[in-house]
Amino acid sequence: MTRSSKIFRFVLKRLLQGIPIILAIVIINFFLLNMADGDAVDVLAGEAGSATPEYMAELRAKFGLDQPLPVQLFVYLKNVVVLDLGYSFRHDMPVSELIVDRFWPTALLMVSTILLAVGFGILLGLLAAMRLNTWKDAVITVFALITYATPLFWVGLMMIVVFSLNLGWFPTSGMENVAAFYEGWDRVKDIAVHLVLPTITLSLFYLALYTRMMRASMLEQYGQDYVITARAKGLTERRITFVHVLRNALLPVVTMAGVQVGALIGGSVIVESVFAWPGLGMLAFESLFARDLNLLLGIFLLSSVLVIVVNLIVDIIYSLLDPRIEVS
Amino acid sequence: MLAFWHRYKRNRSAVFGLVVIVLVVLMAATADFLYPFDPFRLAGKPLSAPGTNGFLLGSDSLGRDVAAGIVHGAKTSLLIGLIATLVAVFIGILFGALSGYYGGQLDNMLMRITEIFQTIPSFIFAILLVAILKPSIYSVVIAISVVSWPGVARLVRGEFLSLKSREFVQACHTLGMSDLRIMLREILPNCLSPIIVIGSLMVATAILIESGLSFLGLGDPNIMSWGFQIGAGRTMLRSAWWVCTFPGVAILITVLAINLVGEGLNDALNPRLRERN
Q1: Domain holding B239: CATH number?
Q2: Which of A54, B13, B208, B226 could tie B247 with a disulfide, CB 3.0–4.6 Å?
Q3: How many distinct structural domains can be found in chain B?
Q4: Distance from CA of A185 to the nearest CA of B (A)
Q5: Assessment of whether the complete model's pTM goes beyond 0.90
Q6: d(Cα A139, Cα B276) in Å, to the nearest integer?
Q7: Which structural domain, as residue segments, surrounds residue B163?
């Protein structure tokens, strides 16, 4: 079997493995929705201000809420398959449309965060491993320890105090200056300026994480036999580090980037609500206050699916990077 | 025990962490003595800067004393962190022990469930649980433990898998001990040290999750907590930076100290795992 067809089969197999997990999450979703006080009809009646019991019963029948639970579950599953995630009464829009609308700002924030965290994490980890047990190594270790212990929302607020309110370098909130009606490159620049603080806030934790991992991974690789061989051949330390050790040390860092996506989504809820970044996290925050459970569950489902998809992609990249790993 | 302390003491930063935790616990324990009044009550002029109007760390927009909030909030953070971790460790041990000891179909099924819970983005799941169960100290504890047990389950499963084929366990089988007794009295005590280490680090994570939830307004509305203070002060950031700043410092110091202790325990209990991150 050729390598490409092997990879294809591997992808297919992993996709099939993902399906039961998604199914389970949908079922958890359904039961959570049922555990909540009040159903969609209560919400509607509340919105309308008043409703007679007869009208509410009629509505329940219309939405199928008078059916037994298994039937409701089946209907719910069927709806999810065709991407019908219900209706957000608060926003007066289908949940799926709302989510698609708000997905791009979050994707932008997450991609820039991952790039920053992985890029600088690799750099700092490399530096710490090369300058082992010097003050640089110590500073990087202390930085990581402190970052692990700091709540994200607090970092965000402190960033606003220092860089927005005192120094005035960056805007306090939002994704762009809507009132300015920027177009083309001006708009890109405007969004980029707004992006700086949320990205730094969200990436700090992962930066610390990748730094420590990269450091550990480099140290582990330095102890391998091939490094001794390379030294025996008379290669320079620089060449050993950058050509041989670095490549191998990168692998575990790439995998971790995939594992952390779930946590990153959780972090984006906090960061987006601190900086009023108009993405999914902010939407989740708003739906909390509006008690818009349909919407909250939709976001939850989408983020779970996202985690599965990203992990699949990371697995594929991993198997391409490291031919020793059999795609089986 | 003494030998353990000697090993622990070698790690300076772990001793420092322990001292800090003892101080935080003392602060929480004497909260009612230091600030006998309800931390929610109006204590003086709103938005007083630190050191003015008799406020050590200032007051917020409703005239609540920030320092009193921090002292009372310490109780909340420590209690929720500890209880949520205990519950999570209990669930984790249950899943991991059954999985590792019996293996086969049961293992397969339990590990699938664990995998699902590991895939779900944990913070959003916690938000969802609290929102649906209505914010209270119980729902916060439930949410945190529901999202934190899978790590323990995997760890315990691994330990049980490797220990169950050891000779001392085979000897127990020969003696006719029941499975339950072997699991609880023979295997479990032998894997306590990694559980203690992971548990201590989980307390830190639990405190962070709790602060995040109460920051978003999902904490128990009747109980003062650090996250709530920061959430309440964020709209006043421009005029009263201290309302958000000091509770955050409290979280940072406490979580840092717990992490240091966790690493110290790791070094002292599992000398061979020293290199693990």
Answers
A1: 1.10.3720.10
A2: B226
A3: 1
A4: 31
A5: no
A6: 20
A7: 2-269
